[in-house]
Amino acid sequence: MLVDDEESIQKLLTFPLEREGYRVIQARNGEEALERFAEQHVDLVVLDVMLPRLDGLEVCRRLRTTSAVPIIMLTARDDEVDKVLGLELGADDYITKPFSIREFRSRIRAMLRRATLLAERREWGEALIEVEGLVIDPAKRTVCRDGDGVQLTYVEFELLRVLATHRGRVYSRHALLEAVWGGSAYREPRTIDVHVRHLREKLEPDPGEPTLILTVRGAGYRFTDF
Fold first, then answer.
1. CA–CA dist 43, 22 (Å, integer)
2. Are strands 2-3 and 134-137 parallel, antiparallel or unpaired?
3. In 152-165, which positions are buried (b, 16+ CB within 10 angstroms) versus exposed (e)?
4. How far is it, in rounded angstroms, from Cα 71 to Cα 45?
5. Tens of pLDDT along the chain (226 residues)?
6. What is the 3 state secondary structure string of the chain?
7. Stated pTM of the model
8. Rg of the chain's alpha carbons, rounded to an integer?
9. How do beta strands 129-131 and 93-96 pair?
10. Do the Cβ atoms of 45 and 71 come closer than 8 Å?
11. Is the separation of the CB atoms in 26 and 2 below 8 Å?
12. Which residues neighbour 12 within 8 Å (Cβ) at sequence distance 6 or greater?
């Protein structure tokens, strides 16, 4: 689903996607985006921040209350606030305007490729990961902490799955970008820091003193191997 109120942007971005075989659902304001999302199956949302009626940040927040669908935000060139807020509200990635069609298609392909692999993985089935009261079911994409369900976004779950599957292994930020998005091109490594912080807030008894997802100074992150 492509959400942007500018007709020129809709045409510019829809054409190359449809040419590659994707079906694009268009929405031109925040309210229409929520309505269309509720009516149809959507694999990925491209969401402009500046929208009439409901802005993109509010749409992102509302989508995250019910869905872990991958969300890519479109932000202004120098608006760091929009980028940070988008990630805080659950966006999985962002593209800074102006951007090239090549970059846009690369981001879409990478995110949808991961979604396809996840669907195949669910069919194959994967073993549960259990550690210190945390239960991760990769096949069902569910997480429980001390028996209580924890809602994670698409990227949060993928980060957790990668780290927990390889307990003790240190991942650099670039390595995590590669593992989750299929590439680190066009992406800020600090994006990983925001998602890791969210995971700690949701999973750690004391996020300020994490015992599950550990920082390795100057290197990256690892999942506890104790």
1. 10
2. unpaired
3. bbbbbbbbbbbbbe
4. 5
5. 999 999 999 999 999 999 989 999 999 999 999 999 999 999 999 999 999 889 999 999 999 888 878 899 988 766 666 777 777 788 888 888 888 898 888 888 888 877 776 665 555 556 788 887 899 988 778 899 988 999 888 788 889 999 998 899 999 999 998 888 766 665 677 788 988 999 999 999 899 999 999 999 999 999 998 6
6. CEECCCHHHHHHHHHHHHHCCCCCCEECCHHHHHHHHHHCCCCCEEEECCCCCCCHHHHHHHHHCCCCCCEEEEECCCCHHHHHHHHHCCCCEEEECCCCHHHHHHHHHHHHHHHHHHHHHHHHCCCCEEECCEEEECCCCEEEECCEEECCCHHHHHHHHHHHHCCCCCECHHHHHHHHHCCCCCCCCHHHHHHHHHHHHHHCCCCCCCCCEEEECCCEEEECCC
7. 0.67
8. 18
9. unpaired
10. yes
11. yes
12. 101
> Residue type for 202, please?
K
Residue bearing tokens 């692999």: 117
Q: Which of 4, 7, 74, 61 is nearest to 32 (CA)?
A: 4
Residue identified by tokens 């190359």 is 16
Taking the C-alpha atoms of residue 148 and residue 132, their distance in angstroms, rounded to an integer, is 13
Residue corresponding to tokens 């409901």: 54
Q: From residue 56, how far is each of 32, 45, 159, 161 by CA, in Å?
A: 12, 11, 24, 28
Task: Determine the length of the chain.
Answer: 226
